[in-house]
Design brief:
Layout lengths: L1 H22 L2 H4 L11 H23 L3 H12 L1 H28 L1 H22 L1 H11 L15 H57 L7 H14 L6 H7 L5 H10 L2 E4 L13 H4 L5 E3 L16 E6 L3 H4 L9 E5 L8 H11 L1 H4 L4 E5 L20 H6 L8 E5 L3 H4 L8 E6 L8 H8 L8 E6 L2 H4 L4 H4 L9 H6 L2 E2 L5 E8 H10 E2 L5 E7 L10 H7 L5 E6 L2 H11 L15 E6 L3 H24 L10 E6 L5 H4 L2 H10 L2 E6 L6
Parallel strand pairs: 1-2, 1-3, 3-4, 4-5, 5-6, 6-7, 7-8, 8-10, 9-11, 10-12, 12-13, 13-14, 14-15, 15-16
């Protein structure tokens, strides 16, 4: 009788639960038993009985467990204390699992992507049940001859086509309602997120107050602190900078005052160069408001500034006589302008300067020669002709140069060649009126610096206008190789080159450089080019993978936006022959130089393509490709990021990319 009563109780519960089963959503049916502590009594009974029968069926096969044993187990399960203990044990185990999973979800971007993808599918399934009541209305409205859907065929009559159109309209209406519901939920979650963000801002202040009141702060190495102060100085917009205030503060120790002065570049300028010190292009060098001294008015106590490695000398080629006044002091950083010299005399003036001040040039750490962007300088000659100009003989008479960083125009390389033997960071620019050598001639010249050259920038300052020219005029400044077949097969080794930037050249020319350069250590590549009518292979992700498979950072900008999008699309899925292209890629940068709606559309399209790269690489098999760690976006818009990007796109990048930077810039500096 006891068995019958228990069996009757079980089957009665099952009968009641059958109705509940149809009422539950798909998401709810997938929940674990130990998470149901707040369900109704009948619902909880059904889940427990279901668990009992599943356990009985499994163990009966292995141990010949009888129904009486199952009933005995059922009595224990129905015991309230047993139920409570079971739920507490399950809850504690689940909390342990959740704690481990939470750590992964908070810190592992692969786990974040996997979790979001899983919950998206669950939510979509739940949406079907959530709107099932409206589905019933749609179905009854469209019901005809026992069917709710009609396939359109050439034989369909007008009534059937109208019925199909009505079905589409109702389905579209349902989709819009679902989107509206999700949109309202999203707006509420955004308000919740904003509230949490405001709350989080106040917490660090409270922490700082407690820490300062209870214990001393940890200290950073002096080198790190000085680097931070140096960056702070260049970021400071105020005329009275933070570092200047610290130096003037009576509480600042004398040794730190000296150290802070070293973080503030001092400018000593000749008369003709004073006007250009505050130009925008110098902000990264010396800040917006550097301490400024004239070479002709240096006092005895200020001449010591020249002995600091943070001092920059600004001069023009017309001020050679004034530069002799500081010739007895060491030179570390020289910014030399040739803009005011007539074009026909520039080369002569520069050769005179190099000859008279060669002993000072070999002492330099950094040389920056400024010139008019639209005016050329001299002509580029092949490396084999340098000895005929006395370059090698002159080099033999000089001590080894200390110059590590230089920015020069292409035509200046033959003149400055003896001083570039240890160059590490080299920027070569080409004006809009300058003749451009073949890629072979250029690389053959640069190989003389290959043992030290680590960073190379090659910028066509006139390239911004090239795309406005006719197709024939686009290549009018480029030299032609007499033997293009053999030239394309030549390779030039740059074993130490880590960063390469090629900006505003035609695609065929940039592609030739990439195909001919052999740089196994290259990890950063920046390309900006415009398409051309040449019948050569276009720059693609496959080509870059073949040439530089170890690339970690890429910046790709083409005048034709569809090419950029195609490039990132190729990176978003495994290639049929090579699996993932550029598998070590971790950083992506894009530059949006268009304003208005065109720029916004370009930005949105590019971000959607990059978003796909981020998502798919996070979802890839671990070890097959690196996740994207950094996304940098430079744009000319003055709008805040919340108005530039849709909130959902912005949130995706901030959630899945550890370093996401959206920053405006002045296109005049590009």
């Amino acid at each position: 009788m006891v068995c019958l009563r228990i069996a009757g109780r079980i089957f009665g519960t099952l009968k009641r639960a059958r109705g509940l089963l149809h009422a539950q959503t798909t998401l709810a049916l997938n929940h674990r038993v130990d998470s149901q502590s707040h369900r109704s009594g009948d619902d909880r009974q059904f889940l427990i009985v279901n668990k009992l029968f599943n356990s009985w069926r499994g163990e009966r096969r292995d141990q010949n467990l009888g129904f009486e044993d199952a009933v005995d187990r059922g009595n224990r399960i129905w015991n309230p204390d047993s139920i409570r203990t079971s739920f507490q044990h399950s809850s504690s185990c689940r909390m342990a699992r959740l704690s481990k999973n939470a750590t992964n979800i908070l810190h592992c971007h692969r786990s974040i992507e996997s979790y979001c993808a899983e919950k998206t599918e669950e939510l979509l399934k739940y949406m079907v049940n959530l709107f099932s009541d409206f589905d019933i209305i749609v179905g009854s409205t469209l019901l005809r001859d026992g069917k709710t859907e009609f396939e359109i065929s050439p034989d369909s009559n007008v009534d059937e086509l109208r019925h199909a159109m009505g079905e589409c309209n109702l389905s579209m209406h349902l989709q819009r309602m679902q989107l509206e519901v999700l949109s309202r939920v999203t707006r509420r979650k955004e308000r919740d997120l904003s509230g949490l963000a405001e709350k989080s801002v106040s917490i660090p202040s409270a922490i700082n107050a407690i820490v300062l009141a209870t214990r001393s702060l940890p200290t950073l190495p002096n080198e790190v602190l000085l680097r931070i102060f140096s960056l702070l100085y260049r970021m400071d917009d105020a005329r009275e900078t933070t570092l200047a205030k610290l130096i003037e503060d009576e509480g600042t120790p004398e040794n730190w005052r000296l150290a802070l002065r070293g973080c503030m570049p001092t400018v000593i300028a000749t008369t003709g160069a004073i006007g250009g010190v505050h130009d925008r292009e110098n902000h990264n060098l010396v800040g917006r408001h550097p301490p400024l001294f004239y070479t002709s008015h240096l006092e005895e106590d200020t001449k010591g500034l020249l002995e600091s490695k943070s001092t920059f000398i600004f001069a023009t080629l017309q001020d050679l006589q004034q530069m002799k006044e500081i010739q007895q002091f060491p030179w570390y950083n020289l910014v030399l302008s040739i803009k005011t010299i007539h074009a026909a005399s520039r080369e002569t003036f520069l050769r005179t300067f190099v000859r008279e001040y060669s002993a000072k040039l070999i002492e330099l750490d950094q040389l920056d020669i400024r010139f008019a962007l639209r005016e050329g300088f001299g002509s580029f000659v092949d490396v084999s002709t340098v000895s005929n100009q006395g370059g090698e003989e002159h080099q033999l008479r000089l001590p080894q140069s200390k110059l590590r960083k230089a920015r020069v125009q292409l035509g200046m390389l033959p003149i400055l060649h003896p001083f570039l033997c240890n160059i590490v960071d080299l920027e070569i620019t080409v004006s809009s009126r300058q003749f451009i050598p073949t890629s072979t001639s250029l690389l053959r010249w640069l190989t003389s610096y290959s043992n030290t050259l680590a960073n190379l920038k090659y910028i066509n300052r006139g390239g911004g206008d090239d795309h406005l020219l006719s197709l024939s005029g686009t290549h009018s400044r480029f030299a032609r190789s007499p033997d293009t077949t053999n030239e394309g097969s030549l390779r030039f080794s740059f074993p130490r080159l880590k960063k390469l930037m090629i900006v505003l050249f035609p695609e065929c020319y940039a592609g030739n450089i990439l195909q001919q350069i052999d740089s196994p250590a290259l990890h950063h590549l920046a390309l900006s080019y415009h398409t051309c009518p040449c019948q050569t292979a276009s720059i693609s992700a496959v080509i870059l993978h073949n040439v530089f498979p170890a690339l970690e950072s890429i910046s790709m900008t083409c005048k034709k936006r569809s090419r950029d999008i195609q490039f990132y699309t190729d990176l978003s899925t495994p290639h049929e022959d090579m699996e993932w292209l550029l598998p070590m890629l971790r950083s992506i940068s894009i530059v949006v130089i268009h304003r208005g709606e065109m720029g916004m559309e370009e930005l949105r399209d590019s971000l959607l393509a990059i978003k796909k790269v981020v998502n798919n690489r996070l979802s890839a098999t671990p070890g097959s490709t690196s996740p994207i760690h950094s996304v940098y976006i430079l744009h000319v818009s003055s709008l805040p990021e919340s108005e530039i990007l849709a909130p959902e796109t912005l949130n995706t990048f901030k959630l899945l990319v550890p370093e996401f930077v959206l920053h405006g810039f002045d296109e005049k500096m590009f």
